[in-house]
Amino acid sequence: MGRAHSNAWKKATLFFDLPFEPVLKVACGRKKEELDKFAKRWSWAETETDWRKMIARDDIDIIDIAVPQSLHFEIAVEAAKAGKHIFCEKPMAMNSEQAIEMLRVCEENNVIHYLNHNYRRVPAVALAKKMIADGLIGDIYHWRSSYQQDWITDPDFPITWQLKKEWARAGPHWDLNSHCVDLAHYLIGPIKDVTAITTNFITERPIAIEGSTGNLKGRASEGQMEKVTVEDAALMLVNFSNGAVGSFEATRFANGRKNKLSFEIYGKKGSLTFDLEKMNELGYYAVDDQEQLRGFRTILVTEDNHPYMENWWPAGHIIGYEHTFIHAVADFISAISEQNSISPNFHDGVEVIKVLEAGLQSSYEKRTITLNNNP
Amino acid sequence: MGRAHSNAWKKATLFFDLPFEPVLKVACGRKKEELDKFAKRWSWAETETDWRKMIARDDIDIIDIAVPQSLHFEIAVEAAKAGKHIFCEKPMAMNSEQAIEMLRVCEENNVIHYLNHNYRRVPAVALAKKMIADGLIGDIYHWRSSYQQDWITDPDFPITWQLKKEWARAGPHWDLNSHCVDLAHYLIGPIKDVTAITTNFITERPIAIEGSTGNLKGRASEGQMEKVTVEDAALMLVNFSNGAVGSFEATRFANGRKNKLSFEIYGKKGSLTFDLEKMNELGYYAVDDQEQLRGFRTILVTEDNHPYMENWWPAGHIIGYEHTFIHAVADFISAISEQNSISPNFHDGVEVIKVLEAGLQSSYEKRTITLNNNP
Amino acid sequence: MGRAHSNAWKKATLFFDLPFEPVLKVACGRKKEELDKFAKRWSWAETETDWRKMIARDDIDIIDIAVPQSLHFEIAVEAAKAGKHIFCEKPMAMNSEQAIEMLRVCEENNVIHYLNHNYRRVPAVALAKKMIADGLIGDIYHWRSSYQQDWITDPDFPITWQLKKEWARAGPHWDLNSHCVDLAHYLIGPIKDVTAITTNFITERPIAIEGSTGNLKGRASEGQMEKVTVEDAALMLVNFSNGAVGSFEATRFANGRKNKLSFEIYGKKGSLTFDLEKMNELGYYAVDDQEQLRGFRTILVTEDNHPYMENWWPAGHIIGYEHTFIHAVADFISAISEQNSISPNFHDGVEVIKVLEAGLQSSYEKRTITLNNNP
Amino acid sequence: MGRAHSNAWKKATLFFDLPFEPVLKVACGRKKEELDKFAKRWSWAETETDWRKMIARDDIDIIDIAVPQSLHFEIAVEAAKAGKHIFCEKPMAMNSEQAIEMLRVCEENNVIHYLNHNYRRVPAVALAKKMIADGLIGDIYHWRSSYQQDWITDPDFPITWQLKKEWARAGPHWDLNSHCVDLAHYLIGPIKDVTAITTNFITERPIAIEGSTGNLKGRASEGQMEKVTVEDAALMLVNFSNGAVGSFEATRFANGRKNKLSFEIYGKKGSLTFDLEKMNELGYYAVDDQEQLRGFRTILVTEDNHPYMENWWPAGHIIGYEHTFIHAVADFISAISEQNSISPNFHDGVEVIKVLEAGLQSSYEKRTITLNNNP
């Protein structure tokens, strides 16, 4: 994440005409040696191992929070109190109380807050949003989504922080469904009620050998096992306030799926499909196409007139994962410059966390949970 | 359905080496004129408008029930009592009481009963079953399925018997999910509990002009409306007895999807994908493939060594929808000849109906329903 | 081929409203025992091992020629002289002299002649034709086609009649390119000049053990080899009279391709793509689609309003290879009834054979061959 | 191109561990104002409008030639004479005489020369190369490629330098086929003979309004037309020295294809497919896969163990077009550091140009041209 963020901060002004250029001032981390090496490569001016000291500085305007979610709350609250604008990774927090408080403090201190559900800024997703807003899809009947990975299907894969409740709050439901719920909010609208089940396929895992867990690739030690305290998969059904129904599936046990966030949207006038592993493409079916000639079309979203794409390459020359971060940074800088809010932000994040919490509650209580959307 | 069944009875012996040849003896229907025309075209020897008279005949061994599900119970019970073997369309019945009784009477009378969840006999599906049985997929984590159509997205599409509870019991949950639940039972195993939601997008529809409803294409009359009494979409989550989790979505409101039954199966050793609109293909990911070279492959299931395919054309020459009926008839005739049972049958059908009923109950009561699998 | 043809003759009247019903009168073949068995299964009334005797009968109106191409000429000429209508397999003949004479005799005797380039009657192909005729594609720039199979990539695969010049005239160029050239004529127009190369990958093969060659699956005998006297692959470039350029590739050495006839058409207003292994689908790109939303769409050609499809199943229920034969028989019977010509016929066949001959000549002489289209 | 190159020079050391960091010293261009703006954004230290002065400087080690091909010869020869290492865009030169001389001068002056056929460094293409080298594909039978774009299908699209012979030498044959021929050399081997046709669909075009031609999007002036002096499409067949046959199609008239370079490779043991518009995927068919389970698989080339990918993101997070330039720069810097040659270089470029020249000659003379591969 440090690389993806640093790259975005450096690259945004090269490809986008922005009102000012971000300065990479202080890189913050716990391990001094690694941190210095990282900062040197990415030309961060300084390093710091105590995030409170970093926030205390006067020469910093923006705090980019790219740490595990268990740390978001404390950092974000302090940063907001110090008047820093916030660029925060997802999932936003460990629970809705934290999220609501993060939002409150930001609003109180008038800082701009951005929550990095970065897939809103995939050009194909932004185009989908535009098409829905333009009425091309009509009243929406169905949202069908899944986020599938396969990095822990091997029972010998050692335990990581992502598999421990105290660090992660939950498993793919928190990590992956948060993306899908944010997209559903963005593209379909608010969720009224939630019905979910969760499960575990592997209940304990070996402890990783010290220092071997970089990049999710730790080697397992022999014999010592630790309990997995988050779910391995989460499935969720929802009713949206506008009458649509939706489904979500998040798992790290879908062999062959590396980072497959996919959604299907079916509306009265048209349908849309998307798959993050083919992120430059958007599927579209138009009911109004001439009879006989209707069919799902694949829009290669790389044209000048597609969202964000005039800043990149000629048509047909695709972009990748990291570009979503650059789009986010570009929009965030513009928002700061114009004193505007940007979406998704902590308000959006609160709504996502509420839905995720309701999902966990539903899975525990084995019943539908209605969301209170009027706090 | 009459055409698809008649075609299968006529064609099975042409392409399969069967122990005997079925004789198309009596075609039964309500409307004499249409029936005679149909019988003549398909060379049925006689016609009959009273199904009880047909069942009473001594010169008939098999009753093929291809009528709406509200009529299955009565006909099947009478046929079984008369000692006829039964080839029955799905969904099996209006409720589990009917289904259980149908099964009981068949067993009591020692007749062979077949329930036409015909998609088990798509060669790609039969191959999937074989692969799972051979251990190629390993312990199964996920079943993800949907059955999507779009024939009633137009609110002006007139009401049909499929949209009335008294004729159909339920909507796509009964009609489409029954296929998917049968496949899930076949490929994954028994279901332990069910959590579901259902919804309606269009609550009333025009009444069709008399005689205009053939082939789901009725013209609407003006002004006269009738209430839709079944759901328009049904979404369901399940836990399987073996620890897998599963999801089902059935809808007639997915614009662009004509007859898209699709499933994904993720297991410890491999994954499978299928889409009925591309029914000659099976997707397969093998964890044991050489590292670097892993990927979902598309098996074109048209080779001599694929299930049923040695009876058809050279490799690469695809087959279609109607062939599943021919495979069913061929296996049914063999089963009768060998005095064997055939799957799926009324036993399988009872299990499907129980799951579907639990799904409806779950959607009404907004809670998970545990199935009693030990009657 | 006997099965595919018999099936079509039997089935056409079941699914199409035809002016008369074909009677399966005499099945003709060389091996009496096999023939009788075949005739019984398919309910041919009689059998005959001497085709001249069959043609001499008064009670036969149609001769269906489904034998290797080396025999077409003699049979077709005799049949035409006897006033029989002709349904003839492709490739039409061994050379253009034969083909021209076959056409001449048919015209002289006023018989209706049909040449079974059956892929014109794939609904997706017929739809492509209609779209081009309706002006949806505009002036055509490119035709890009290939026909790929893989049944002889194994050098131990024994020699068959298809690999011997005296039986087949040529290899995939004759067998496969004939289909593609016919489709190019149908969809694009006449060809002006031809530039081709051919090659052999395996120059000799084992002789098959007697009686083991059914269904292209002979076992090889040890030691005895025979020379392959046709090409293994043929590649061809053409200029069409209307200014389009085209390419053709025919091979039996494309591992993984079972029966992949594919084409791409690029025109001023739109583009089309087709793949026989997914024969129910047609790809279409419309230049006139709204900017931002352009993309290749996949038309699932199974709707009532698609060519031939109102006679089959509901939308989304696909058909297969054998249906092209049924469509051909239905149209042929109608043509006879209405005393109309039908396409493709021997006239079309002559044009195909001329192009194929020019291709062979070009590959021998290593230069472009201009066709004389004004005989 | 300036952006893609600058980005690569800046970014290579961020993602790759390189022996030294390139300094962006002097940006050179004709138009002072635009150049200064560009240099500022990309942090080039200085600018220069006279390329000879730039080459004359002592403080420069590398010359990156990213100008139209008509200028390559002069600049490359001067740069080599000055002892600069050369990173050169393709197509290499206007003819083989130029190319041969460029190579000669580079070798004489011991400079490292790299020719930017960048698609060799798409990870999927590099993986294909490795698989062929490892023997997974076996003896190769077929290469089938095309490079399709659609940016000039509109007859009103104004003329650009790419459509003028004096600037571009030829059309898509030079621009696009050069990529495909380079890949064919890389993946299959040397070409023995060439047979080609070329054509023009639009023979004259409007002259663009001054200053409006940026990014291939000029507005046409009214009335003034200029002759197109290069071909619009080029089709080419080849025999490779190893016995394989190949085909190439290059066009700017394939509506719906934005930047579709695709190839298929068929060998004795396996097959490969690639499409630049889906550049993170490689298709693979293995003859040795278990019978019944064979099929083309899609390898998502984003794993740590795939070429170049350990430097990027977790599996399933795709990369894009610009990354090929970064890979090239990284390898080029390593080559300089280790005093090694790098491929493709001017030697490879000479071979490509010879094939392209033979293609043009073949199209003029309407006959096969045999290459003299032993100069």
Taking pLDDT < 50 over at least 5 consecutive residues as the criterion, the unreliable ranges of chain A are none
Total E-strand runs of chain A: 16
Largest interface, Cβ cutoff 8 Å: A-B, 42 and 42 residues
N-to-C SSE string of chain A, H for helix and E for strand? HEHEHEHEHEHEHHHEEEEEEEEEHHE
Task: Assign a percent range to the helix content of chain A.
Answer: 25-40%
From the N-terminal CA to the C-terminal CA of chain A, the straight-line distance is: 34 Å
Q: Can you offer a commentary on this structure?
A:
Four copies of one chain form a homotetramer. Helices cover 32% and strands 24% of the residues of chain A. Chain A is of the alpha/beta class and 375 residues long. In chain A, strands 15-14-13-12-6-11-10-7-16 form a nine-stranded mixed beta sheet. In chain A, strands 3-4-5 form a three-stranded parallel beta sheet. In chain A, strand 3, helix 4 and strand 4 form a beta-alpha-beta unit. In chain A, helix 1 (2-15) packs across helix 10 and helix 9 crosses helix 11 (346-365). Chain A binds chain B through residues 141-142, 144, 146, 148, 150, 153, 195-197, 199, 201, 232-233, 235, 237, 239, 243, 245, 247, 249, 251, 253-257, 264, 266-271, 285, 287, 294-296, 366-368, and chain B through 141-142, 144, 146, 148, 150, 153, 195-197, 199, 201, 232-233, 235, 237, 239, 243, 245, 247, 249, 251, 253-257, 264, 266-271, 285, 287, 294-296, 366-368. Strand 15 of chain B pairs antiparallel with strand 15 of chain D, so a sheet runs across the interface.
